[in-house]
Amino acid sequence: MWQAEISVDLDAIRGNTALLKRGTSAEVMAVVKADGYGHGAVESARAALEGGATWLGTATLGEAAVLRAAGLRAPILAWLWTAGTPLTAAVEGDIDLGVSTLGQLATVIAAAREAGRSLRTHLKIDTGLSRSGAGATDWPVLVEVAAKAQTDGFIEVTGVWSHFACADTPGHPSIDSQLAAFDDGLTVARRFGIEPQLRHMANSPALLTRPDSHFDLVRAGIATYGLSPIEGSQFGLRPAMTARARILTAKRVPEGQGVSYGHTYVTSAPSTLAVVPLGYGDGVPRSASSVGPVLINGRRFTIAGRVCMDQFVVDCGDADVHEGDLAILFGPGDHGEPTADDWARAAGTINYEIVTRFGSSRVSRIYV
Ligand SMILES: *Cc1c(COP(=O)(O)O)cnc(C)c1O
Predict the structure, then answer these.
(1) Shared fold status for 10-225 and 241-367
(2) Residue 75 CB–ligand 1 contact under 6 Å
(3) Which of 143, 135, 87 is nearest to 115 (CA)?
(4) Most buried one in 142, 171, 192, 328, CB count within 10 A?
(5) pLDDT tens digits along 57-112
């Protein structure tokens, strides 16, 4: 490694998926949206399938197409698409489509008519997240139209599904009320003759804490990558991503020296300043200014002053730090380096955002 890299431990992804699979009798869908939460969608998908996942999940149709183009044959569900979007590639790629609205359903039916075959759909019910999914009043209408389309041979209702709002807060009352609403939704579907093969609701936190939410399929995102969705419990998961860089320059400065834009940090003693060639253009949150943790030569330091677009500065005090030394921003923690959780706490965000940001950067990604 010359300058900076993100390394992704595919064994960790395989192992995490196997661990999740051991904890449920449901099938496991590895969610690889946003380029596999920054870990690389195709490589992560392959590793998760090797670990026992049988489904892949993406937000957009474009993300699903990338998986197919890479030769992945597992069933894929894509759920974030707007009514009217051309479905040609999705039809060719045999992508299962999440459907929340009558507009989406009409789009699927039109595409099925054109393709001359039925298309696999997963009807989504909003059980309380108040994001996508048909609400309680729209659900019976969606189900009725879908049942008719199924009878007419335009669609096959493969799944009925929903998504939790607060599964990362075990014991939150909305979890039980969403499960009850899901049950009601299934009853309504059954009344119209819809008996889906796959009922699915659980994300990573529900998978890890609520076996009664597993149904036939669980959608595991963050846990696949070894990060816990629940503060304070690791569940035996192993973080897959490490972010590191080589010190660009290290130099002595006197006491009272302002550091980086705005001089928001001033040295309190003569110090060695180390410049790390990663910035917000690479995924380092600017909100990590003066708080983000870094491990250099076995010691933890904190970012000094503002994170810039391409670099940040670390005050190493009197530590022996030189040009070319390794700075580890985060990793699994084996060598005392900070974790994505530490970064999330420091930057006021969640581990999901930390890894996703770093992965979608200009930094090269390597797989180990
Ligand atoms: C992102 C996403 C998931 C995965 O959530 P995690 O908390 O990362 O496991 C599951 N389902 C839907 C609909 C999602 O958007």
Answers:
(1) no
(2) no
(3) 87
(4) 142
(5) 999 999 999 999 999 999 999 999 999 999 999 999 999 999 999 999 999 999 99
What are the strands, taking DSSP E only, across 151-302?
155-161, 198-200, 217-220, 241-246, 249-253, 258-259, 265-266, 271-276, 293-296, 299-302
Q: Report the CATH superfamily, name and number, of domain 241-367.
A: Lyase, Ornithine Decarboxylase; Chain A, domain 1 (2.40.37.10)
Domain 10-225 annotated CATH 3.20.20.10: yes
Collapsing DSSP to helix, strand or coil, 3 comes out as: coil
Residue of the CA atom closest to atom 13 of ligand 1 = 163
The domain spans of the chain are 10-225, 241-367
pLDDT at 1: 74
Q: What is the reported pLDDT for 321?
A: 98
Give the model's pLDDT for residue 360.
Answer: 67
Q: Rounded to whole angstroms, how far apart are CA atoms 128 and 234?
A: 27
Measure CA 232 to chain center.
Answer: 19
Q: Is the pLDDT of residue 51 over 70?
A: yes
Q: Assess whether the C-beta atom of 208 lies below 6 angstroms from ligand 1.
A: no
* Secondary structure E strands in 24-118: 27-31, 55-58, 76-78, 96-99
